[in-house]
Every structure is written in C-alpha cells, then in structure tokens.
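Moderator note: this is an archived Q&A kept for reference. The question asked for a predicted structure of one protein chain; the sequence and the answer are reproduced below.
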Amino acid sequence: MLRIYFLLFLRFNEILIDMIILVLNCGSSSIKYQVLDMKSESEHSLLAKGLVERIGMEEGDTTHSVPGKDKHKTHKKVTDHTEGIKDVLGLLTDSEYGILRSLDEIDAVGHRVVHGGEYFTQSCIIDQRVKEGIDKCSVLAPLHNPAGLLGIRAVENTLPKVPQVAVFDTSFLQTIPAHAYTYGLPYEYYEKDKIRRYGFHGTSHRYVSKVGAELAGIDYHDSNIITCHLGNGSSVTAVKNGRAVDTSLGMTTIDGLIMGTRCGALDPGVVTYLMKKYNLSVDELDKILTKQSGFLGVSGVSSDMRDLEEAASRGDKRAQLTLEIFRYGLLKFVGAFSAAMGGVDLIVFTGGIGENDPATRAYIGEKCGYLGIDFDSDINNGLRGKSAILTKKDSKVKVAVVTTNEELVIATDTMKLVKM
C-alpha cells in the first residue's frame, strides 16, 4: 500500500510540474516558435510549431504546424516583429488551427536572445534589469537584440503575469579561451569596454554538436567537432571535448561569413575609407554593413539563399559569385578550425541553409576529402530538413546534417528557472 501511495505521489507531482511553454526565437527577419508541454528535462511533447519568414520584405510567409494535422500556411506582408508575434498568438488560439483554448494556458515564455555581452553568462528570468542589459547589448547585435526585446514586450502586453526567460546565444561560447577572443587592439579597450569576440548561435551549436556526436557514434567529450550554423545569419564553431574553443562571429553579428544582409569579415581600413570618401555617418555605415551587404549587396537579387540559387541557375553571374564567396568562406573556416583543434572527427551542418542546401554541403564534403571525408552524394542529394550522416561507413571524418532545435534547449532552461 505504501508503494501505491508513493507512485501516486510521484504521478501527482509530475502533473504539478507540467508546463506549457511558448518559445520565441526572433531572428533578424524571422520568428520561429514552438509550444511544448514540458514534464521534465527528458519528457516533453511538441504541441505546435511554426515559422514567420521574410519579415519586413514585400511578401511574408507563415507556416503553422500541429502534429498529426496538415500545415496551415499564410502568405502576406509582415511589417515587423510585433505584428509577427500577434499573428503567432492568434494562430495558437484559433478555433480551427489552434492548440490552446486561451492564452492563459501558457505557463511561461522562453526567448532566444542573441547577445548577452559580459552581462549574462547564463539563462535568466526576465525582469527590468535584464531588459536593460539586453538593450545595452543592442549596439552589438542591432538586427537581433531589438527584435528580441520586441518579442519580450509584446508578450508582456498580452500575457503580463506569465514569467519570461532569456536564453542567450553567447552562453555556450563563454568557454572560448582568451587567445581566441582577444582582438589585437590596445588592451584597455577590452578592460574598459569589453571589446572582444563573443560569437553567436551558441544555443544551436550546443544542441547540434551533442546530437551530431550521438548520431555519428562518437564520444562528445573526447572529440573534435565543427558545427556550421548556416542561414540568414551564419556562424562556424569549433567544439573540442564538448566545449566551444573558437567561432567565426565576433563582438557583433557581422563578422565571419557573408550572410543575408551582413558583410562578414572585412578589412577595418575599408570602413574608414568609405566613411572619409562618402562622408558617411556611423549610422549610415552601420546600415550598409548590416542591412545592405552580404547576399543582397553582392548579388543585387535577394538576401534569401533560395532566390540566389534560382537566379544562379538562370545564369545570373552576380548570384553565382555570391554563392562562391559564401561557400569558399565556409571552406576556409572548416580548414582553419580543423588545424586549430589538431584534426576533426565530425562536421555538422544545421540552420536553414545547412539543413536544406545539398549543394553547399557537397562543396565542403568534396573539397575536404583531404581530411579523410568519404562523402556520400547519393544520401546528400535531395536531403532537406532531416538529420542524417552524409558520409560512407568507413569515412575517417564524419559529416552530418542535424535539424537544430534551439527551441527545446530554450524550453528546458525556461522550465528549470521557472520551477526554482
């Protein structure tokens, strides 16, 4: 009888800690969302997920999915993130497509926040101090932190009593050593202003490096892994024995690879040259580097990889050049990080481009054959949005594509903090 009471007690407590968590991942031009029923760290179920794309562009797309049901898609202009989040909340309670009777069923909201600077080294409950810290870091992530704050404030207005948690992209990358994050500037700029390499997409790199290791059958804590998070924003990270040791993005989100509208690595002399020649203000130059460069600036076609590939297939030379610049830059980071770690056991692709662009994966897999990669083109071709090993059985170095799930990491951290 005592055993029965004990089991009932456990089941009762399990019900008590069930939490419906809304996760918002506000990117520079998108909002990914998931609603999860979190019972524990290891037990959870997905209730709904979706993606609002091309925010701020002439035409936007929203895809809303509920397990076991057909996807619901809408095609309309989404002016900004505030409008996008209102659309999301409306879908969650929609009489036909929703999964909640009312928004009161949401127990907590977890937010992906790109930049925590040195203010935040771990996830935390959002209060006024946290919002102020996120705002202070907006100068370092002008396309992302303001978008994250919009999400936080939109939820505050709609669900004022629901606790919110910020999960920072920079947290996983705090293990990067000083020799990798320190710039060659007078050291006082680090001491006074904390100017250094921070890196981003840490939540994704943390997730896919671990899942990729499991998929490849290698020991996560005794391995060299290179993770390639490729999308409208992109970064490459070196993960040695489960800890980040280097990354391509820097103090802000415009370093490294060229991205949707961001220039990537650039000679600092170009900045001063442009400012002097065209008498540009700081804000004007910032707009050029963050909103008018990258895929959009080089191609003159679009900031979206899908549009570039379509244009390139029609013979558009600038679109073709843009793809070559992106893939060549990725190749250099893979080579550099392999050298820095003394070799590589696994290369992981993730993100919108990494998961859905076989051509980019094939470029790396084939160009890096010298590392010991025996790439399987048959598996790679046509593989989109699914996790898989992309190398042959006896390949010395494995290549994998892993569908990232930053939202699960965010929901787990949110559950832990709210339960405290």
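Archived answer notes: The mean pLDDT is 92.
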